[in-house]
Amino acid sequence: LLNVIAGVAGRGHQMAVVLAGRQPVGADLTAGGGRPLGAEAVAGPPVRLPASALPVRQLTGSDSVNGLVGAIAADSVESVNVTTGAVTSTSIPSGFTPTDAVMQGRNVVLIDSARRDVLFVNTASRVTRMLAMPGSQPPSQLTVQDGLVFVNASDGPSAMVINGAGRWRPVTKYTGAPPSRPKPDTLPSTSP
Fold first, then answer.
1. Higher local confidence (pLDDT), 150 or 15
2. How far is CA 136 from the centre of its chain?
3. What's the rounded Cα separation, in Å, for the pair 28 and 63?
4. Is the pLDDT of residue 188 over 60?
5. What are the C-alpha distances in Å from 184 to residues 111, 180, 187, 188?
6. β-sheet bridge partners, residue 109
7. CA-closest candidate to residue 137, choices 154, 120, 150
8. What's the whole-number mean pLDDT along residues 133-157?
9. pTM, whole model, 2 decimals?
10. What distances in angstroms separate CA 164 from CA 19, 42, 60, 106, 148, one per listed residue?
11. pLDDT of 155
12. Residue 187 CB contacts under 8 Å (≥ 6 apart), including other chains
């Protein structure tokens, strides 16, 4: 349906739709094209990623910048503004394999769930910072809320919060054993 409406992706190509600020964006993850959806979708050719960024593994939209998406490739993060056509590329360190990503403003935060590493990428300055997940469990969940990125190790007591400047703080979710659920009362049996 999106192929027909917006001319976003080729037949049989993998595609994604994300919200970038308040702007819906459609992208062809196979060929690397993207464009705004809605009234702006019919104007102009789609923004193209460099061939070195293909195929795109994941697409994430900015929580606050209209039309800005982060395209995650095997060894780079591409910041793509589908409204202006601006594309910037930042290398991912060797050995880091992104398993999830979110975009906060102009920053992309990636996790590698096989390692205890979190990668912070400022797409405007192309600065990357490797952060160590607190605790002994690798990160497994990412959330953006109120301009902050929350990184969680769902199997452990540790988490971290990262602000827009890349500064972070550890968060201890609980200090003792995880909360347990009380057993429901047994209902008395009734005889007919």
1. 150
2. 23
3. 21
4. yes
5. 38, 12, 9, 12
6. 102, 120
7. 154
8. 91
9. 0.80
10. 19, 33, 16, 8, 7
11. 81
12. none
- Mean pLDDT within 88-104: 92
Q: Please provide residue 41's backbone torsions phi and psi, each rounded to the nearest 5 degrees.
A: -65, -25
pLDDT of residue 174: 74
In terms of Cβ atoms closer than 10 Å to its own Cβ (0-12, 13-18, 19+), residue 144 is buried
Question: What is the distance of C-alpha 24 from the center of its chain?
Answer: 15
Distance (Å, whole) CA 113 – CA 101: 11
- What is the 3-state secondary structure of the chain? CHHHHHCCCCCCCCEEEEEECCEEEEEECCCCEEEECCHHHHCCCCEECCHHHCCCCEEEEECCCCCEEEEECCCEEEEEECCCCCEEEEECCCCCCCCEEEEECCEEEEEECCCCEEEEEECCCCEEEEEECCCCCCCCEEEEECCEEEEECCCCCEEEEECCCCCEEEEECCCCCCCCCCCCCCCCCCCC
